[in-house]
């Protein structure tokens, strides 16, 4: 049996990559505390943390900036980046298609419509987030149901992706209609800003805890199944002969990945490219073995999203939507990988 079909210890190179990414992520998180409109020096940062630990000489303004504004946003950016990248890696391995992204089954567009609908009717932010999450899950459930109905006797994977593409097109048109009928002075700008993706309004402790809970549950499921996903790289007959229930594993992986994506979109809006590009870079670093690919994708996604969010906060006096900036970076990077990179990247 090939290496990627076995549960084996990580190689020295794979461990080195994981340790390096962990170190870079910690350094980036600490550096991110200094990025923003209000200038904070490293000395002030140390003073604030010392005051928190000892209870002496508090610095109220700097303390509020770090612990109420910046730290929750940093954690949320890392969690969302990790979730989207892990979801993308799982989908790409499951469908054996390097061009698959977390939104392939319509969860992103479905969640986008749910949020746009909530904004259109002036619902509270928590209801808007709930609408986005629920509509994302409903969309994927509809895709799975339609695939089961239409895919009998045919290639179910192809039917699944085609159905997801149809759902994406359908909800994209419905979102466009929602924007068309929305009030141009108030609702339309709010819908547009939400769809661009941003952490500006979602970086709080409540959302961090929600995203952390989803990532712990769904991420643990994917990590426990990663060696079985390796085996799915063979044909279904070979996978079954190795004791893998292919249908059950596919369903669970899709549900876990959908939870990760729906939670991310419901909290922060639509952020593309992360779940497409980061798994490719991770594959370049450690190869196709999901035992190493999943943790490297998770850490790489967290690091990438954190750095992009720092740029979104620092490039202009206001703030760029992080989803727009990710697209600016992701599209040229993917073109470079496509035309100038190694063939095994794709």
UniProtKB/TrEMBL annotation:
UniProt cross-references to InterPro entries, sorted A to Z: ABC_BtuC-like, ABC_transptr_permease_BtuC
GO biological processes: siderophore-iron import into cell
Record keywords: Cell membrane, Membrane, Transmembrane, Transmembrane helix, Transport
Coiled coil regions, renumbered to chain: none
GO cellular component: plasma membrane
Alphabetized Gene3D superfamilies for the sequence: ABC transporter involved in vitamin B12 uptake, BtuC
Membrane topology listed for this record: Multi-pass membrane protein
Classification via Pfam families: FecCD
UniProt keyword Transmembrane helix, yes or no: yes
Molecular function terms from GO: transmembrane transporter activity
Family affiliation: Belongs to the binding-protein-dependent transport system permease family. FecCD subfamily.
The name this protein goes by in its record: HmuU protein
Annotated source species: Treponema primitia (strain ATCC BAA-887 / DSM 12427 / ZAS-2)
């Amino acid at each position: 049996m090939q290496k990627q079909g076995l549960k084996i210890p990580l190689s020295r190179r794979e461990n080195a990559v994981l340790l390096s990414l962990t170190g870079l992520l910690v350094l980036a998180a600490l550096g991110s505390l200094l990025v923003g409109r209000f200038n904070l020096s490293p000395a002030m940062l140390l003073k604030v943390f010392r005051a928190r630990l000892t209870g002496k000489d508090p610095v109220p303004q700097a303390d509020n900036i770090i612990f109420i504004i910046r730290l929750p946003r940093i954690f949320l950016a890392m969690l969302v980046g990790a979730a989207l990248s892990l979801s993308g890696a799982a989908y790409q391995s499951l469908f054996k298609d390097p061009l698959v992204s977390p939104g392939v089954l319509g969860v992103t567009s479905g969640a986008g419509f749910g949020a746009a609908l909530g904004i259109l009717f002036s619902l509270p932010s928590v209801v808007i987030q709930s609408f986005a999450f629920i509509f994302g899950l409903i969309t994927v459930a509809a895709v799975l149901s339609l695939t089961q109905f239409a895919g009998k006797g045919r290639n179910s994977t192809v039917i699944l992706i085609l159905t997801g593409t149809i759902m994406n097109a359908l909800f994209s048109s419905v979102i466009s209609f929602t924007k068309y009928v929305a009030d141009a002075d108030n609702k339309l700008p709010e819908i547009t800003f939400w769809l661009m993706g941003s952490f500006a309004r979602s970086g709080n402790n409540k959302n961090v805890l929600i995203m952390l809970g989803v990532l712990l549950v769904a991420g643990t499921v994917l990590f426990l199944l990663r060696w079985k996903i390796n085996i799915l790289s063979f044909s279904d007959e070979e996978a079954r002969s190795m004791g893998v229930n292919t249908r059950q594993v596919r369903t669970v992986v899709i549900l876990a990945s959908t939870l990760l994506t729906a939670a991310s979109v419901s909290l922060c809006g639509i952020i593309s490219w992360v779940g497409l590009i980061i798994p490719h870079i991770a594959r370049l670093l450690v190869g196709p073995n999901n035992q190493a690919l999943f943790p490297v994708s998770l850490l790489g996604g967290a690091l990438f999203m954190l750095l992009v969010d720092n740029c979104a906060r620092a490039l202009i006096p206001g703030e760029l939507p992080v989803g727009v900036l990710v697209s600016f970076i992701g599209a040229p990077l993917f073109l470079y990988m496509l035309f100038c990179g190694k063939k095994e990247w794709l």
